[in-house]
Specification:
By secondary structure, the chain is mainly alpha-helical. It has one domain: Topoisomerase I, Chain A, domain 4 (Orthogonal Bundle). The protein has four helices and two strands; from the N terminus they run H-H-H-H-E-E. It is elongated and about 50 Å long.
């Protein structure tokens, strides 16, 4: 996936801002100042907010990449024609983000 330096920098800046937001959520949770979402524990609220922020960053990376990739780029062709993948996948490739959740829940880390 080849992006211009400007687009890559834009995505990386956005990711840094998102990671800062995630850090703030984590700090609030650890300090006990995070307000829970109705029906969720503090831990579930933190996970939901983190997943939401990371998902938004992935989507913005996909939009930036899709709108600025050359029309003959293989990834863009596959995503826009529906042959394989989607803008979400382009966002994951461009933003260096993997799958953050499955069926609405954080993917468990297992060895």
């Amino acid at each position: 996936m080849e992006l211009s330096d400007k687009d890559r920098e834009s995505i990386l800046t956005d990711l840094k801002e998102t990671y800062d937001k995630v850090g703030d959520i984590t700090a609030q949770k650890n300090k006990g100042t995070l307000t829970s979402i109705r029906g969720m524990t503090i831990a579930e609220t933190a996970e939901a907010l983190i997943t939401y922020e990371l998902g938004k960053a992935r989507d913005r990376a996909g939009i930036t990449a899709n709108s600025n990739l050359a029309d003959d780029n293989a990834g863009k062709i596959m995503a826009t024609t529906g042959a394989r993948g989607s803008a979400l996948n382009v966002g994951q490739m461009a933003g260096a983000l993997g799958q953050q959740s499955g069926t609405g829940k954080k993917i468990a880390y297992r060895l």
